Amino acid sequence: MKIVFIGAGNLATRLSLAMQRVGMQIGQVYSHTSENARQLAVKLGCPWTTDLSALQADADMYVFSLKDTVLADVIAQVKPNNGLWIHTAGSMPMDVFEGYAARYGVLYPLQTFSKGREVSFDVIPIFLEANTKKDADYLKKIASALSENVRFMSSEKRRSLHLAAVFACNFTNHIYALSYKLLEQEEIPADVLLPLIDETTAKIHAMPPAAAQTGPAIRYDENVINKHLAMLDDPDMKEIYQLLSRSIHKEAQNE
Amino acid sequence: MKIVFIGAGNLATRLSLAMQRVGMQIGQVYSHTSENARQLAVKLGCPWTTDLSALQADADMYVFSLKDTVLADVIAQVKPNNGLWIHTAGSMPMDVFEGYAARYGVLYPLQTFSKGREVSFDVIPIFLEANTKKDADYLKKIASALSENVRFMSSEKRRSLHLAAVFACNFTNHIYALSYKLLEQEEIPADVLLPLIDETTAKIHAMPPAAAQTGPAIRYDENVINKHLAMLDDPDMKEIYQLLSRSIHKEAQNE
Prior knowledge:
The structure is a homodimer.
Chain A (H helix, E strand, L loop, with lengths): L1 E5 L3 H12 L3 E6 L3 H11 L3 E2 L11 E4 L3 H10 L6 E4 L16 E6 L16 E5 L2 H14 L3 E3 L2 H31 L8 H13 L2 H4 L3 H4 L2 H10 L3 H20 L1
Parallel strand pairs in A: 1-2, 1-4, 2-3, 4-5, 5-6, 7-8
Antiparallel strand pairs in A: 6-7
Protein name (chains A, B): DUF2520 domain-containing protein
């Protein structure tokens, strides 16, 4: 079982290392930039290239883990072969491979990956798709070696899942960043927020987030809301505060 | 050591129960609404009232745990006594008590509280303020019985902390609610997001949130961003998506 990785970003890094850990062989890493290709290849102990025409042709699987904007272009440059071509993108349909490969599919791990941070793949939900029943079974075997939480999902549903994940992960993380910034301005150590953040997350394991909502917006405490708005200098932060408070209040009234 | 609680909301519920657990006596609970007063009094096994003129006059401490909008009004209605009067609000200054009590202060536990959810007070950061050195020491002793994480903070800094907490807790929780809503529309079980949400939170214990940022906005992947905007029907959610993506991109460029 030999795998070629096309892409060497956060997701490619963590996925290739996880695959190697369960005994799959990473045959080669491609990246547009030699520094990224080399870095990941060193971690994996495998060859690397920045030349798509130099891809090994005999791999069992080709994992395209690239920015959505370049995925279709790169696929078009890879010579046809007998391997299974998959991508790992939430928002790209499976049929981006149509006309370029005979066997193709998707393996989308729903997680936030950073190059330098180990994650345990066991619990990561992995969403699969394949163009034949045979490769669906094959992909399921591969994914099940990585995680206990594997299921099939259509391209259309997957893009909704990805959108929800952008809210649940990227946007919440950015809001953490904004809250840290507010504390830094006041020279308050930001880690005082961690027990609050941990509890906010722990709560939604026990109740739906709409039921867990607290704070001035759900109470519609205009006194606090107006004081807070007056304290925010940054126009974007002020707008974020207003918009989210209004949205909290609106959802509460709909219930 | 006898304590009277004025207010019976989420925070009052969890704080009074935590105080009772470490051996403090809750003498009485007041709430504007008899149902709330009774509910908390039953949990505590103590008398309750909806009449501010019927408050016990001999307590050591009076905890005002009320919406900011009514706090000053209620304080003005309580007859002077020899107890220490404190409130638990992030955004209200300590001097809201000035002219009404001789001894006063603040005990602000930085946490999200729901009536029905147990929380461990041990790790909750508690921020104190008092109008005399003697009562500062007294309040510190009381707070230290509840938590290992007690410090003093001025009213001015506390209101910035509260603002940051609204971002870190109330806004992130609401964004979880929006992401759940997106999945419900697609009949995808929302708990598939939990490993992602847990990792997003775990990451910021290891790195600052700005360094942990991932997703289409930080990559400025317009392909994905535009697809996502086209998928959002709700105008508020569309605006939230745009505003937060722009803010993520802006912060990334400032670094």
